[in-house]
Design brief:
The complex is a heterodimer of chains A (292) and B (285). Chain A has eleven helices and no strands. With 292 residues, chain A is an all-alpha fold. Chain A folds into two domains: 40 residues; 233 residues, MetI-like fold (Orthogonal Bundle). Chain A is globular, with a radius of gyration of 25 Å. The two termini of chain A are 44 Å apart. Chain B is of the alpha/beta class and 285 residues long. Helices cover 35% and strands 26% of the residues of chain B. Chain B has a ten-stranded mixed sheet. In chain B, helix 6 packs across helix 8. Chain B is globular, with a radius of gyration of 19 Å. In chain B, 45% of the residues are buried. The chains are: A mainly alpha (292), B alpha/beta (285). The interface between A and B is medium-sized, with 22 and 27 residues.
Chain lengths: 292, 285
Amino acid sequence: MTSLAASPGKSTRRDRVWKNRIFKAAMLFSMLVAFGTLAVLMVDIIITGWPELDRQLFSGPPSTVAEEAGARPAILATIYLGVLVLLLSVPIGVLTAIYLEEYADRTRWWNRLIEVNIQNLAAVPSIVYGILGLAFIVRGIGVGRVVFAGALILTLVVLPTVVVASREAIRAVPDSIRQGAFALGATKWQVIWRQVLPASIPGMATGSILALSRAVGETAPLIMVGAIVYVAFDPTLFGAYTALPVQIYNWTKQPDPTFQTLAAAGAIVLLAIVLSMNAVAIFLRNRYRKQW
Amino acid sequence: METPHIDSTRIAEASRGALERADIERREKVFSVSGLGVSYNGKSALEGVDLEVYRNTVTAFIGPSGCGKSTFIRCFNRMNDLIPGAKVEGTVLYHGADLYGRDVDPVEIRRRIGMVFQKPNPFPKSIYDNIAFGPRVLGMKGDMNERVESALRHAALWDEVKDRLKDGALGLSGGQQQRLCIARALAVEPDVILMDEPASALDPISTTRIEDLMHDLKREYTIVIVTHNMQQAARVADMTAFFSVVVADDGSARRGILVEYDTTAKIFTTPSDKRTEDYVTGRFG
């Protein structure tokens, strides 16, 4: 005999309905805290920085006179850094991920060591990379305080993230695809190059871009490896430079209130760069949705 | 098991066109297996298998789960090489040459001995590129369009897909995907096609089409099929091997053995071994 009435015991129907409501409310609240903070922050920055978000900001070099100051060298250097980090970290990160996923024998201790190490590296504070870069890259091999040195350091900062994201993407390719390709007489390299990689590119691209947008916003390691504050000329690969986050940081320290407005304007530009990179990542993820 | 007993009319039907054992054994031996055993990380999965696979026949491997029939079929194209810890002992001769010989290239073996898997596994590419993948990686010469068309015709799929060759293969139905996988295997001009439960994930109509296809394909190819569907073995196979599981005395280890290998008609009507009889009549398994 079946009865639809609430069964006597621990949880009555009324109880369960309330639990459901409470949980829903808690989730909604969490979401509002996260989203609300971001929204308030952005609106505040946009309102503060709007007056200085003009052509001067994009075309002028920094200046001690707030009305004449711009961030052209900083914006350009940030773009250079982003492109360089992409060119350095993606090939190294993807190849590392391929090795670990497709070739490494997990029963060997050195492969497990590499794996643990990569996870630890992802947790190392970026300032530590900055100190390392100062010691080994700027002074050790004598690259100097140049854009290229900054790019090398940021590459080290994002590399673990790129490796982890690429490994996830490779692991998401079903084994049946590899087996199918092997069964047709493909060599291991052909299986990886023609089946596994094309199928995992969306995941890799998404992860890499998100890592890169983190790199673009990094300040601490760049201060260590000499992103100096006053650069009056456009940066070159092996020349002195400053980066947008460093420039913003410096402006906030100035006593003249117009510099605060400039800092907010610079923050809008940085946010726009980072958010548009994230948008590309989301676009790629949706465009190449998993097909199996 | 899905059937309490084997439909006798089916058997009669199958037997009418069936070949006598002597006829089959007169044919060229494609594979000669002796003393074959497979172990995973030292644990034996299959032991002491001896059998011959004859040219232009369909050979079926049947048996309960865990009897090692899928493990066995993977010995023929060295797919077990891809599993870490897998070890194959004994000999498998392919047209007289040792498949596990020192200078044998597994890649070359897999070109000549194609495989179709249990779950259709088309590549996430177009129908055309699925077929063209094999010839391309092997650097085969000739007109690719012709090659694709011929493979699809052989797999009885051409008429259904000829107008959408550039569409994604994952948009096809399960049965079409499996025929695409067969076409893909045919495109590299193999000698043998191994099928590991090719119809177990398909509906009855698709299954029938795959079975019909096997009848056509065996004129040009040698086919080895693993199936857990006894009626399917009865319908398509010329020779059938029955595998079973032996449990060690202390109950700790289970390994597969070959119990009986004979013509399909014999296996399903008058098997020599009691275990085979119990299995095909549905008393066990």
